[in-house]
């Protein structure tokens, strides 16, 4: 420990004068520094912290300790090791807090840990407040934080003067920031916190404002930055809400993306709001000359298509329904597939070709780019699918309800051929009794509705179009309305709310068809309708998931989609305007995937040709960086510690090195003469005198500012070389003698 | 072990003077070659010396031997508790005949001043020496009086006796270029000493061997000894390290750095060198620096002394080689 001048004065002088001096010193403020002391500022920050976090019972003692500096005149000299001890204590407190909070609060401990940070920093705060010389230590530290320890102690000697060295940063500043940060980790009123924190920062900055400009300018700038900060924080909060919603939706669809071939629990009867993600599920591109968007024709068609049976052979092809599964048994808001039996699909002649139905007419085909893992291996297939090509899977299975499942993971491109007449989901199973079952809970509502429709005696096709027309006035909504407690969801939908999402429409349609004597099923899948000009493909998102009814009319399962056709538009309205940005990144990812896959097809040689130059470049760079570092280190050494070192090229160093290799190494603290005296007798007797002469020349070469004249320099060189030659020869003779 | 002189530059005359003085003094002071060397080094570079040792180790004899070896004026001041500044500096006394004040020079107006048992006088009196030792001048009655050149103070003090003594102020300690102990001599030397003292005290036989001009030449030549920037840095590093050493309250001052360099120059001259080597600096560092350090009170418990601090510094700082 050292006594600085302040301490001596403080012993003799009057207390008032000292406290001013000491606080001035500990603050690192100059005499001009108007405004509040850093320690008082810390008190204010602690007060805010205590108020915000509700830890006033901790904050008040801290403030008391801080403010006691006005009455306690005693100050302690702090050495670097003391400061380190304080830091260790802080670390220990932090560790204890960590353990306690983790055990008490489990997973939400991080907020509490943040809130308790000022307590952990208390030892350092005390060191700063009641210690002398902390500033000088910090100044030393900040001047060159990466100096090795021994260099530091060496350098500190010349640099350390507690009066002149002042670090611009005091531990008070750190503590101040810590308090504000800790106070921010609460859920209380953030308007109040923002205002209070801004005021504190204003007080802090006021005394540090540049003296050359006017206070008005400073004030304006501060207000501007505060205002911008406030606006920004509101925006960030909004952004966070957006992200939260997205993440929730993503988590939601992770599970809903999986299609169970056996059952489909609908959201009917639930309360809340359906949240569907905008994540792109897969991409679809027509292989024929159909890459143009068919939106104009589809919009005009769709109103008509809506009322009638949608035919898969619709010339516009898009919007295209892609079916994943269908179910025939309805009970308690859940559709089930009765006796679902999976059979193997025979592989085709080509590699990766799978024939689902041996029909002739296949005039359409589309290319899928899909992650098979995403849908749990259940393929989304257009109506009338007959064959799948280029699908690299081991085996493929299908059941009687048109579900095609493969056992594969990863993103693949595959082609699907489908036609209007034949296909897996056109002529799967013949309808049975289950396809006509209406659950008892909904029977009354179905009959009431059918009575309104006046379909008795009409043809099946007529019945279907009437049922479809009945839904014309229904509302599409993603809001899950609260159902009447004693009414089944479908009945409630038909009779009361007349509003719902596609599951309602599909279920109600299926049940109505059954009520009218037409076998009907419930199908789920996607509607491909959104053409991306960027990618030249149709994008199918999670939110494009859809449900519709299948009606067995005229010996064929036909699609009857009664959901109002503007449902994609409604869902699109809910998406943020940033969607295109995320789509773009999705596209980039998709492209990157293709590039990587192409890379995989490259040979080893091509890869090496790319990698080796890259590797060489990196190697070169790191060598350069290493050399630069060394160069800098040497520069610093020469510039900072050893300003002039002449005669470093002396040949004596070769002798020293040679002897060093033979175990006669010189200790760094040993001067050459001391070293010579130590090893003198172990040198061959004939060479002792020459060694001394060389050493004398070396000493002059190194330490005499007049240095050596050229002949002497030459002599040093010659003697050294001769000496080494002699020594080596002598050594060999010795070795031979041994 | 010194290097052969033939290698060093040709400043032989300074070295000769040193040799003569050294031999002359060693006729009286037996077995104290290194002490004589240090004393003369301080003398040659214009610094002052504080001898601290037990009673009867030859402090006064050494000082007197030097004084008698050089043909210069010598005064001795026995420091007592009632000694006043005017007893050292001199006093103006009214001359009744001329009816004016006449200044009587004090003992400080000599070339070599022996301040015997300096710590027996009060700090007030000791302070009278400050200006004289630092700047070779005294201000009396507002008149500036230059002291003679060379001006050399050899002070002695007794480390054992604490009663009735005053510790030297740090400011004055700092003004001594060197402080060293004589220590007890070897039994052989002590036997010789007894033999010498059989008839008469050998100090009475000492005759001046160099003239005052020789001393001025010597001092001039010391100043011409070259010091490389690297070794200046080494000096500063040593002094700097004492300021951050543990258990040290107050490190050595820049005056300490200057003294270390000058003494090393003198030592280099004595060895026949034209330039200073790290060995010269190391040889005198403890004597030059140790007395300037103020140790923490608790350092005593870890048996650390100022000397050990400086020698530790020498053992930790890498030596330029």
Protein model, in words:
- The complex is a heterodimer of chains A (738) and B (321).
- Chain A is of the alpha+beta class.
- Helices cover 52% and strands 14% of the residues of chain A.
- Chain A contains 24 helices and 24 strands.
- In chain A, the strands form 7 sheets. Chain A has a 7-stranded antiparallel β-sheet, with no helix packed on it. In chain A, strands 12-6-20-23-24 form a 5-stranded antiparallel β-sheet. Chain A has a 3-stranded antiparallel β-sheet with strand order 3-8-7, with no helix packed on it.
- Mean pLDDT of chain A is 74; it is low at 1-34, 155-164, 289-315 and 634-641.
- With 321 residues, chain B is of the alpha/beta class.
- Chain B has 2 domains: 8-221, Rossmann fold, CATH 3.40.50; 225-321, Orthogonal Bundle (Helicase, Ruva Protein, domain 3).
- Chain B contains 12 helices and 11 strands.
- In chain B, strands 2-5-8-1-9 form a 5-stranded parallel β-sheet. A two-stranded antiparallel ribbon of chain B has the order 3-4.
- Chain B is globular.
- The relative contact order of chain B is 0.17.
- Residues 1-12 of chain B have low confidence and may be disordered.
- The A-B interface holds A 1-3, 150, 153-154, 156-158, 160, 641-646, 656, 666, 668-677, 680, 692-693, 695-697, 699-700, 702-706 and B 1, 3-4, 7-9, 226-231, 233, 236-237, 239-244, 248-251, 274-279, 282, 296, 314-321.
Features:
heterodimer, A: 738 residues, alpha+beta, 4 domains, seven-stranded antiparallel beta sheet, five-stranded antiparallel beta sheet, B: 321 residues, Rossmann fold, Helicase, Ruva Protein, domain 3, 2 domains, five-stranded parallel beta sheet, 15% strand, globular, disordered N terminus
């Amino acid at each position: 420990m050292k006594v600085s001048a302040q301490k001596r004065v403080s012993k003799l002088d009057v207390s008032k004068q000292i406290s001013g001096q000491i606080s001035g010193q500990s603050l690192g403020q100059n005499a001009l520094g108007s405004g509040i002391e850093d320690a008082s500022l810390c008190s204010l920050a602690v007060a805010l912290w205590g108020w915000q976090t509700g830890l006033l019972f901790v904050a008040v003692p801290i403030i008391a300790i801080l403010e006691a500096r006005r009455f306690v005149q005693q100050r302690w000299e702090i050495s670097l090791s003391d400061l380190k001890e304080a830091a260790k204590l802080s670390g220990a407190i932090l560790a204890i807090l960590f353990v306690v909070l983790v055990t008490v609060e489990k997973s939400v401990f991080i907020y509490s840990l943040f809130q308790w940070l000022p307590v952990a920093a208390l030892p350092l705060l005390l060191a700063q407040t009641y210690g002398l010389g902390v500033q000088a230590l910090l100044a030393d530290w900040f001047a060159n934080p990466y100096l090795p320890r021994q260099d530091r102690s060496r350098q500190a000697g010349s640099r350390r003067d507690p009066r002149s060295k002042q670090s611009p940063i005091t531990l008070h500043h750190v503590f101040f920031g810590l308090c504000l940060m800790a106070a921010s980790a609460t859920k209380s009123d953030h308007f109040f916190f923002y205002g209070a924190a801004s005021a504190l920062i204003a007080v802090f900055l006021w005394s540090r404002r540049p003296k050359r400009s006017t206070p008005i300018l400073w004030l304006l700038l501060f207000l501007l930055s505060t205002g911008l900060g406030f606006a920004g924080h509101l925006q960030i909060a909004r952004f966070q809400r957006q992200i939260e919603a997205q993440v929730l939706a993503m988590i939601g669809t992770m599970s809903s993306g999986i299609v169970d071939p056996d059952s489909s629990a609908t959201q009917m009867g639930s309360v809340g709001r359906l949240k569907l993600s905008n994540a792109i599920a897969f991409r679809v591109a027509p292989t024929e000359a159909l890459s143009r968007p068919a939106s104009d024709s589809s919009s005009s068609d769709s109103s008509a298509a809506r009322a009638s049976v949608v035919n898969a052979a619709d010339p516009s092809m898009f919007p295209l329904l892609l079916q994943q599964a269908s179910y025939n048994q309805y009970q308690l808001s859940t559709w089930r597939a009765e006796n679902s039996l999976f059979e193997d699909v025979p592989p085709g002649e080509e590699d990766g070709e799978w024939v689902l139905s041996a029909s002739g007419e296949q005039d359409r085909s589309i290319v899928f780019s899909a992650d098979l893992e995403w849908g749990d291996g259940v393929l989304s297939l257009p109506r009338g699918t007959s064959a799948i090509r280029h699908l690299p899977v081991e085996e493929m299975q299908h059941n009687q309800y048109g579900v095609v499942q493969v056992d594969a993971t990863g993103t693949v491109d595959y082609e699907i051929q489908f036609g209007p007449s034949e296909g897996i989901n056109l002529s799967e199973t013949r309808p049975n009794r289950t396809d006509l079952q209406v659950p008892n809970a909904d029977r009354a509502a179905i009959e009431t509705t059918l009575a309104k429709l006046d379909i008795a005696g009409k043809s099946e096709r007529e019945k279907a179009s009437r049922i479809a027309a009945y839904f014309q006035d229904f509302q599409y909504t993603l809001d899950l309305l609260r159902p009447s407690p004693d009414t089944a969801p479908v009945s409630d939908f038909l009779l009361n709310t007349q509003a719902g999402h596609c599951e309602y429409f599909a279920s109600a349609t299926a049940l109505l068809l059954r009520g009218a004597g037409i076998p009907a099923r419930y199908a789920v899948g996607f509607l491909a309708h959104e053409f991306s000009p960027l990618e030249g493909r149709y994008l199918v998102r999670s939110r494009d998931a859809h449900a519709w009814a299948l009606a067995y009319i005229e010996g064929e399962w036909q699609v009857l989609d009664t959901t109002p056709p503007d449902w994609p538009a409604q869902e699109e309205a809910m998406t943020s305007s940033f969607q295109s940005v995320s789509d773009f990144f999705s596209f980039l990812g998709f492209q990157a995937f293709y590039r990587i896959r192409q890379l995989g097809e490259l040979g080893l040689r091509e890869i090496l040709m790319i990698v080796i130059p890259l590797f060489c470049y990196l190697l070169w760079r790191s060598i350069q960086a290493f050399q630069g570092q060394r160069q800098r280190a040497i520069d610093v050494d020469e510039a900072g510690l050893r300003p002039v070192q002449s005669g470093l090229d002396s040949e004596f160093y070769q002798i020293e090195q040679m002897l060093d290799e033979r175990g006669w190494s010189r200790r760094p603290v040993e001067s050459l003469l001391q070293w010579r005296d130590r090893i003198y007798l172990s040198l061959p007797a004939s060479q002792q005198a020459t060694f001394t002469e060389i050493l004398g020349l070396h000493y002059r070469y190194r330490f005499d500012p007049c240095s050596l004249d050229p002949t002497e320099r030459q002599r040093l060189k010659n003697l050294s070389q001769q000496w080494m030659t002699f020594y080596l020869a002598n050594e060999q003779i010795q070795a031979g003698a041994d | 072990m010194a290097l052969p002189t033939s290698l060093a530059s040709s400043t032989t005359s300074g070295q000769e003077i040193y040799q003569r003085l050294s031999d002359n003094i060693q006729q009286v002071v037996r077995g104290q070659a290194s002490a004589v060397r240090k004393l003369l080094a301080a003398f040659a570079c214009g610094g002052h010396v504080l001898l601290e040792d037990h009673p009867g180790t030859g402090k006064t004899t050494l000082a007197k031997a030097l004084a008698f070896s050089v043909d210069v004026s010598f005064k001795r001041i026995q420091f007592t508790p009632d000694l006043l500044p005017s007893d050292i500096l001199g006093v103006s006394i009214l001359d009744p005949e001329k009816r004016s004040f006449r200044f009587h020079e004090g003992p400080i107006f000599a070339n070599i001043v022996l301040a015997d048992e300096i710590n027996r006088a009060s700090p007030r009196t000791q302070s009278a020496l400050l200006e004289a030792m630092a700047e070779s001048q005294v201000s009396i009655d507002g008149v500036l009086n230059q002291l003679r050149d060379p001006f050399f103070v050899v002070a002695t003090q007794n480390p054992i006796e604490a009663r009735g003594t005053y510790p030297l102020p740090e400011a004055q300690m700092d003004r001594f270029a060197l402080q060293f102990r004589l220590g007890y001599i070897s039994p052989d030397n002590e036997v010789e000493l007894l033999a010498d003292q059989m008839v008469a005290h050998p100090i009475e036989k000492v005759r001046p061997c160099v003239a005052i001009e020789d001393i001025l030449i010597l001092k001039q030549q010391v100043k011409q000894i070259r010091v490389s920037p690297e070794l200046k840095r080494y000096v500063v590093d040593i002094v700097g390290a004492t300021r951050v050493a543990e258990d040290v309250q107050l490190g050595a001052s820049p005056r300490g750095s200057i003294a270390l360099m000058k003494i090393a120059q003198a030592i280099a001259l004595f060895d026949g060198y034209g330039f200073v080597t790290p060995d010269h600096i190391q040889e005198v560092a403890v004597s030059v620096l140790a007395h300037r350090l103020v140790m923490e009170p608790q350092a005593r418990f870890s048996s650390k002394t100022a000397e050990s601090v400086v020698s530790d510094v020498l053992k930790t700082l890498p030596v330029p080689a």
